[in-house]
């Protein structure tokens, strides 16, 4: 388990044990890192994880607080077995893509209608970070930035239920995005990645323009493209696997005939 994940679990314990009460401000980053004996970067990543899950909330210029409304009604633990299932069998990513299409069609629609200037700035910044990592060929960081881009859109929807569900699904979404991006690097790598960038840009621009129907259409196009790319990759893998199982005399007709 990574250090940041270990730190996140320790912070969760502070909340669930009542040591940190709802609405209270958590200790400053420097102080908390010293108390836990970890680096500030690991602590920062752990805090961001809990913010993404809705357990903590960051307020610009005011620090980080324990969420006043418990997110327990979303039963976040139910997503853990799903994440484990996906790690064992990536084929379930198709089910996640279907769920994402239904969910993100709504978040994109409402974001286009409701995004504030600060929401739009956050979406643009997430897009820029994603493209930067993509240009460097860092699939892991670009996957995280990709997921945060979609979360920024969910935040701009200003629908607390949609936002909570997206936050709760963050780890699951991240795992499928990482898997999907690895597929993109494998299959028609550069062309696929450029297509993804154009789709993300089109989605972002639709939201910036306040065009809800176009934003929803861009989500359908984007996730449909990902599904089709994965299907083609899996078909190729299955074809290669069948060929590998084929007896040599069938692969090379006549090779068993002795030469005079």
Write a concise keyword list for the protein shown above.
12 helices; two-stranded antiparallel ribbon; 260 residues; mainly alpha; 72% helix; 2 strands
Describe the protein's architecture and organization.
With 260 residues, the chain is mainly α. The chain contains twelve helices and two strands; from the N terminus they run αααββααααααααα. It has helices at residues 3-16, 29-36, 40-52, 79-88, 93-114, 117-135, 139-156, 160-168, 170-186, 189-208, 212-245, 248-251; strands spanning 56-59, 63-66. It has a two-stranded antiparallel sheet with strand order 1-2. α4 packs parallel to α9 (170-186) and α5 (93-114) packs across α7. The termini are far apart. Mean pLDDT is 78; it is low at 70-78.
User: Gap between N and C termini, in Å?
Assistant: 64 Å
Sheet with most strands: 2 strands, antiparallel
> Count of DSSP helices?
12
N-to-C series of helices and strands: HHHEEHHHHHHHHH
Helicity range of the residues? over 70%
- Strand order, sheet with most strands: 1-2
Strand content is: under 5%
Q: Tell how many strands the DSSP assignment holds.
A: 2
How much is the average pLDDT?
78
Query: Could you say which structural class the secondary elements and strand pairing correspond to?
Result: mainly alpha
Q: Spans with pLDDT under 50 lasting ≥5 residues?
A: 70-78
Shape: globular
The gyration radius over C-alpha positions equals: 22 Å
């Amino acid at each position: 388990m990574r250090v940041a994940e270990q730190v996140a679990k320790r912070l969760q314990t502070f909340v669930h044990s009542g040591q940190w009460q709802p609405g209270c401000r958590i200790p400053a980053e420097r102080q908390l890192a010293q108390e836990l004996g970890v680096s500030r970067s690991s602590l920062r990543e752990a805090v961001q994880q809990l913010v993404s899950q809705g357990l903590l909330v960051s307020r610009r210029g005011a620090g980080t607080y324990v969420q006043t409304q418990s997110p327990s009604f979303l039963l976040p633990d139910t997503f853990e077995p799903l994440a484990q299932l996906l790690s064992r069998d990536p084929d379930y990513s198709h089910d996640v893509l279907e769920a994402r299409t239904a969910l993100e069609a709504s978040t994109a629609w409402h974001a286009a209608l409701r995004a504030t200037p600060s929401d739009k700035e956050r979406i643009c910044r997430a897009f820029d970070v994603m493209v930067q990592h993509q240009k460097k060929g860092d699939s892991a960081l670009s996957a995280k930035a990709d997921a945060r881009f979609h979360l920024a859109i969910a935040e701009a929807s200003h629908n607390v239920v949609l936002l909570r569900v997206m936050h709760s699904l963050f780890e699951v979404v991240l795992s499928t995005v990482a898997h999907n991006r690895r597929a993109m690097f494998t299959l028609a790598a550069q062309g696929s990645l450029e297509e993804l960038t154009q789709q993300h840009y089109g989605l972002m621009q639709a939201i910036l323009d306040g065009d809800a129907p176009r934003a929803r259409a861009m989500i359908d196009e984007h996730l449909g493209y990902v599904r089709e790319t994965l299907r083609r990759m899996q078909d190729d893998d299955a074809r290669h696997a069948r060929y590998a199982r084929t007896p040599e005399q069938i692969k090379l007709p006549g090779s068993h005939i002795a030469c005079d």
